[in-house]
Amino acid sequence: NTLAIIPIISTLYHPRSTEAATKYFLTQAAASAMILFSSMINAWNTGTWDITQMSYTPSNILLSLALALKLGLAPAHFWLPEVLQGSTLLTAFIITTWQKLAPMSLIYLTMNNLPSAILLMLGLTSSTIGGWSGLNQTQTRKIMAYSSIAHLGWMATIASIMSNIMIMNLVVYLMMTTALFTSLICSKSKTIQDTATTWTTSPTLTIIMMLTLLSLGGLPPLTGFVPKWLVLEELIMQNLIPMATAMAMSALLSLFFYLRLTYNTTLTLPPNTLQMKFKWRFKPIMPFMMVTLSTLTIFMLPLTPLILL
After folding, report:
1. 39 located within any domain
2. Which of 2, 120, 128, 203 could form a disulfide with 28 if both were Cys (CB 3.0 to 4.6 A apart)?
3. For residue 276, is it within any domain?
4. What phi and psi values does residue 139 have, to the nearest 5 degrees?
5. Over the Cα atoms of the chain, what is R_g?
């Protein structure tokens, strides 16, 4: 998986893309080595090589940290924004969606053995740092990187408590991120300034992008409200009220930069004066996947009872 994505990151031959590919390779190689080392320590002490049956505590702690590094959970998150910034929008989309499936499946398989306290702390740290660090960003790829870190924090928080909510959270995250990245690719928006002139290419695309951003922020009645609501409800049922309060407060940090992007996208329309050049009015190509996923990203909240069943 890692070796396959490196040529894709290096497609545009540029020092930034070469640096991004190198950082990605070194990070993933180190995380994979840590996973193998944790398995070896467990086999040495217990005699079993099955990674889903690890009972040696130091091995489980090392495995948790390795998966955090592989996913980009804070405090091992510094590589993710830099790698995304050195990649194209399409490559950044692949890294934040498809590349998260393997580590998340490992968490799902080993969550009974992973220390709950470490997962909760990783989740809270990721949600807070993901929201805090995204406040001063101007590049959409870095904003999406910190958005990914924050959402992965919510998944790590609930992983040791209820796996079904984690899976649903992952599916909704993949859906929303895919919808937003396809919108950014269609509008060629690499910076916040670019989003301010999206309406010149397609007003429909502008509205879709605005609603997708609000859904990522977790505002009702949009789909993104569902996973946050269920995670907070489950934390309160487990009597982790301070944790639920801290997670809810950290979500407000992420919501701020989503609202800032929304303001630039939809509220800088005429007769307001803009300080940037308009884009050429080419006919936008709106893929069927983007339309479908955007619809699900916006209107899936009424289906929540069916999902829970």
Report:
1. no
2. 2
3. no
4. -95, 130
5. 20
**Residue in the structure block whose two tokens are 């009872």:** 305
Per-residue pLDDT reduced to its tens digit, 109-151: 988 888 999 999 999 999 999 999 988 888 899 999 999 999 9
What are the C-alpha distances in Å from 90 to residues 147, 240, 285, 307? Answer: 16, 39, 15, 30
Q: How confident is the model at residue 210 (pLDDT cuts 50, 70, 90)?
A: confident
Tokens 């660090």 found at: 133
- Between CA 255 and CA 76 the distance in angstroms is 23
Backbone angles phi, psi at 114, to 5 degrees: -70, 140
Here the tokens at position 138 are 């101007």
Q: How many domains does the chain have?
A: 1
pLDDT digits (tens, 9 = 90+) for 271-302: 555 555 555 555 556 666 666 777 777 777 76
Q: Is 147 exposed, middle or buried (0-12, 13-18, 19+ CB in 10 A)?
A: buried
Domain that holds residue 288: 83-270+283-308
Domain assignment present for residue 74? The answer is: no
Q: Is residue 120 part of a domain?
A: yes
Q: What is the pLDDT of residue 188?
A: 82
* Start-to-end CA span in the chain (Å): 34
Q: What is the three-class DSSP state of 224?
A: coil
